[in-house]
Amino acid sequence: MHKALGLQALNWLLKLEQRLQRDGSAVIKADSKIAAQVIAWCIEQQLLPAHSARLPRVQFNRALLEQIAKAQQALGQACFRQPVSSQDRLQQSLHSQQELKSAGASPRQHRVLIRLNTPLFAQGLPALQFSDFDWQQLPLSAYDALLVVENLDCFYQLQRFTFTMPYQQPLLIYRGDTQYSSGCAALCDAWQQTGKPCVYFGDADLAGLSIAISLGCSNMLLPELSQFQHAASPAMLDNKQLKFQPGLAAMAMHPAFTPYQQLICQQLKVLRQQQMQGLPLTPVTLLTLPNADTLAEQKT
Q1: Residue 290: its pLDDT value, please?
Q2: Rounded distance between C-alpha atoms, residue 242 and residue 97, angstroms
Q3: DSSP class of residue 94?
């Protein structure tokens, strides 16, 4: 039996159905790889005559697509009408036996690693301080600020840092690597709609500043300027970050951050997050409102 249609063919059929809803029928050129796959599958399922494979053009209509959908469902294959791109693998399995790993939400797509403000205690276990969570299930209204921590070692050992923030109930998350970065980015997008502060705590260098701006952070957690100037050094800057310098140096920052911008972007004096241990840290306003609006427009 012919194998099930893949993701590209399913998307092709979905777009074709949208076209047919407008035009009623369409004559399809059979010279493309995807069209040939769909035609061969239809011949296998006896939905098209065998000689269709030799024709330069094949007519598709809404009745044929209805038959294709019913055949896919009867065979336990993914149906082109199912929104596989928005489903996780468990949801996909409810509709078909076919596995489409490249489609839909990956298991970690919406996951974030959070640090609990109040540790949880369970019998026989040490205090639970961290949790892997689907950010869509977090009650964002319960938090008054979002703190995004860049480096995982600092996230796990956050108690080694001294910082003062004017927030009663911040949500603390790890920015993420390949496992958590997509969830963090999605959460930051949603957080911007709340209008509440988003604080970035990471390396105070060109890359860190670029990340903070890309996430829409309103503040950076930093030492007081004189302490930053004393502790920062060009020796901590990775030359690979120089590509960010022109854009960041030209950006209009908030007056509170402008002196830091000059040190980081012009003098190239930077400070790694790990080197901020022992320094009092406070949120420094990062962007002016026009910049924040421009950034939001660019992201959309």
Answers
A1: 45
A2: 49
A3: T
Tokens of 254: 């908030």
> How far does Cα 204 stand from its chain's mean position?
23
Sign of the CA dihedral running 149, 154, 155, 158? negative
| Residue 250, burial from CB neighbour count under 10 angstroms (0-12, 13-18, 19+) | exposed
> Alpha-carbon distance 67 to 60, whole Å?
11
Alpha-carbon gap, residue 37 to 30, rounded angstroms: 9
Cα angle value 195/250/288 (rounded, 5°): 20
Gap between the Cα atoms of 237 and 268, Å rounded: 7
Average pLDDT of the chain, as a whole number: 87
User: Model-level pTM?
Assistant: 0.66
CA–CA gap between residue 111 and residue 104 (Å, rounded): 15
Q: At residue 138, what is the residue type?
A: L
Helices (H), the chain: 7-23, 33-44, 62-75, 89-93, 152-156, 181-192, 206-214, 225-231, 245-250, 258-261, 289-299
29-78: pLDDT as tens digits: 988 899 999 999 999 999 999 999 999 999 999 999 999 999 998 888 88
Three-state DSSP at 78 gives coil
Gap between the terminal Cα atoms of the chain? 45
Q: Which two tokens stand for residue 49?
A: 């005559």
Which single residue is written with the structure tokens 């490249």? Answer: 102
Question: One-letter amino acid identity for 177?
Answer: D
What is the DSSP-derived secondary structure letter of residue 72?
A: H
- 203, with CB counted inside 10 A (0-12, 13-18, 19+), is buried
